[in-house]
Amino acid sequence: MKRKPEDIEQLEQKILQLKRDKALAKRDRDETDITRASRIGFRIGAELLSAVIVGAAIGYLLDKLFATAPWLMVIFLFFGGAAGILNVYRLAQKESEEK
What we know:
Number of helices: 3
Number of strands: 0
Largest sheet: none
Distance between the termini: 56 Å
Order of helices and strands: HHH
Oligomer: single chain
Strand content: under 5%
């Protein structure tokens, strides 16, 4: 079995150390108000949109299964909206506790 040259081992160690330093610097950097607001805004949008889409999809599939179109889709669309609002409320509570 061939052994790695010493300079390659030193280079690998240096690369690993630089990656660790970069991760530490990234973690220690404070989040600005704009980036925090953007992160929260995108999450709120994703929570609402995904809940409504999942609710509509479940309602659509149940409508196809039971031949009740469009009633179950409408009902589950509202359930999805309510679930999305509940998720946003929980997110707001969590963010207010962290701040």
